[in-house]
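Exercise: predict the structure of this protein bound to MRU.
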Amino acid sequence: MHPAHDQVRAIIWREDALELLDQRQLPGILAYRRLESAAEVAQAIRDMVVRGAPAIGIAAAYGVVLAARARYAESVDGWQALIAADLATLAAARPTAVNLFWALRRMEGVIAEQRSHPVERLLAEAQAIHAEDIAANQRMGKLGAALLTERGAVLTHCNTGSLATGGYGTALGVIRQGYAAGRIERVYADETRPWLQGARLTAWELVQDGIPVTLLADAAAAALMRQGGIRWVIVGADRIAANGDVANKIGTYHLAVAARYHRVRFMVVAPTATIDMSIASGADIPIEQRAAEELLTLGGQPVAAADAQAWNPSFDVTPATLVDALVTERGVALAPDAAKMARLMAGAA
Ligand code: MRU
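Solution:
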């Protein structure tokens, strides 16, 4: 890990409550919100205070700790039955990132075996999920950076950095290590409409790290690839199916199509917590549809013709055939397919 890099933490457990950096206000305002109940955590996930697949899972795990504290105070004998409602509230926050359900399942395992005084044990589990995520990111950073054999520029989409994870980042972790190793000379970042995670968050993280970053409108990506110089597109994922299909921020799929056409390689970086072996292909991944207002307005101001409708899927699915490398903390699958995914996951704990 590079000490000058990766300073920000979006998720902090402090004095018996969860503090989330309000990512809706970045980069202008750096403010943490203090949350004391599972319902508040679910709302924060839905409202994009915290976002990014691993970060959503970690926040939800801490949400379970808050729920256990309240339910145990309510009923020492009945807390395990009562907490089911809180788990359901957290699970309903957002549908696509499987890390949310993965983290809740892990917390449920602890709930099932914990008869009394659950808070300390559940907090330890949430903190383990958090710490393991950072360690996985650092490992993936190494594995992904090793694939960057030719020095050049890379293109990324959305925000996959410290803000989207427990810390350090998935695709941005590879970019951090690739830059430190001298293999990346510049990062191009899609602005990522409509939430502008690229413009507001990725550019902010990279500027803080002193890594040269150039923003582009999402629609400019194919033209940029045509100019040459982009060696890799490097992105994260919200859910990866058993055949290697990848759901990620809307706009990822057209990057993959354009990358293949222009002979630019396409790398997906995600921990195994993002892999959902129960889903055969990307066709079965639930894709979140968000409110039309997110497209029809900008900064609260209307930008579209009154009465126009909007189609606003938050994610799309990139077929595995367009993925050159899938980097996980367990290893790399080149040109992933169902057999390689099964092998990768068979090695998983
Ligand atoms: O809607 P968001 O901001 O939660 O979407 C985030 C993404 O699509 C990221 O690329 C993905 O979660 C990977 S983050 C390490």
